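Changelog entry

Holo records now carry the ligand SMILES as an explicit input line rather than a separate metadata file. Below, a converted record for S-adenosylmethionine, shown in the new format.
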Amino acid sequence: MRDPPYNTGRDFIYDDDFAESTASFLERSGQADDEGVRLVANTDANGRYHSDWLSMMYPRLKLARNLLKDDGVIFISIDDHEIDNLRELCDEVFGAQNFVAQIIWQKVFSPKNSAQWFSEDHDYIVCYARDKQDWTPNSLPRTPEMDARYKNPDDDPRGPWASSDLAARNRYDSGLYPIETPSGRVISGPPRGSYWRFSEARFKELAEEGRIWWGNGPDSTPRLKRYLSEVSGGRTLQTFWPYSEVGHTQDAKKTLLKYVPFEHTENVLNSVKPVQLIQRILQLATNVKDNDIVLDFFSGSGTTPHAVMVQNSLDGGNRRYICVQIQEPLERPEPTFKSILGMSLERIKNVAAELSAELNPPDLGYRLVKIDTTNMTDGTREPDETDQLALGELEPSIKSDRSGEDVLFQVLLDWGLELTMPIKVEALSGHQVFDVEEGSLMACFDKHVAPDVVQEIAQRTPLRAVFRDDGFESDAARINAEQVFREVSPSTEVKAI
Ligand SMILES: C[S@@+](CC[C@H](N)C(=O)[O-])C[C@H]1O[C@@H](n2cnc3c(N)ncnc32)[C@H](O)[C@@H]1O
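Structure line, unchanged by the conversion:
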């Protein structure tokens, strides 16, 4: 799922370092400072107005496709500014054959009288499947209004029913016969230009089973009774999503204001989406109990985590979310947060607090991970850049400003372990020791690791154990540690990084 900046000329498009020529263009045209930092809106005065936006989107779409499951699907919200370019980009990345729908979301509750030409009522939500043949959307749950159309005026033991036409226009040669009503009136055949939908034999069966409604008046035409109990599935998906069903922009802002205590209203995100809109996407594209992962590359105020938590609480689901948000500062810092990310964390916490009071709350936990440069020091040097005395500088393998937790997350990624695994932090002989998922991995990234800590970790027989390369007092201490594991827990995979 993604809700990128729409490129309206007003939204910030942070420059990705995608092309050197763009950087030099920006500097030459005064849109970037001498350090190449660009924090200006992408206005159409920018000679690369569309191209910058596309360059920002392309790698993200490529990555999104790689990350999708075989039966995965992507929804991208956009308006008229970039819809054509976006469709072309998606055709290239996902394949035109995997285009599923271009949904129209009625985003506006009342027209903008100030509009110079047209008041824009809608956004698009473009949907592509990773492989259209592999993906079938879930139908939407039936609404109480839909069910209310089924009644039981004749106390039919099969329960409430609604009637439908017995005649149809499709040519059906066995559908031309007279029908005699229970009152003895004979209907010579279906209305002109139409055919009964059933053969005479089948019609007689249906009449015997009491599945024909003969109507209230003497001139009524017979109709077929369709029972609520036999209506299979939910609602058919349609490409027009009215605000009465999925909310509008004002709803979205109201929700944001409910969960985030803003002091400065200019910080309320204009592009925020209604929770119901994302819930609708979750309903049709994710399964309740499959641990489905919802990935949002442009998380903004955190509508996606909000919708995932609410939907899980409504249907007992176990969907998870991964949300990405760049460090975008707010126009005016708020007392409790200073960036869009901070705003979304505030929202997630407050929504989670509300849902945790429910009878069977879903898993409301989350982990915040920030992208940084590698934790490892760069040990590469040209031969003439180093000498005997400077060799000591090359000893530390981990940068001095990195915490044990920083290194742990790198190790989890290197080993392909999930970042959501439970982590216990313990103090063993004054050292910080991490225990990931009850012994899937144990780690200590302190310096001068005491031998009894090595012994204790080995005795817990973890699947993996990690230390820092320069964490041992001496080579002998390191060799000794390896020996301890060989004896006490030979199956542990031991690494020093
Ligand atoms: C349309 S908003 C998303 C709103 C979100 N769906 C919500 O309901 O709050 C787009 C987001 O993209 C972010 N953004 C802008 N330029 C970006 C870039 N170059 N890379 C990544 N994110 C960017 C903005 O910080 C903003 O949060």
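Spot-checked after migration. The longest helix spans residues 49-67. The first strand starts at residue 73 and ends at 78.
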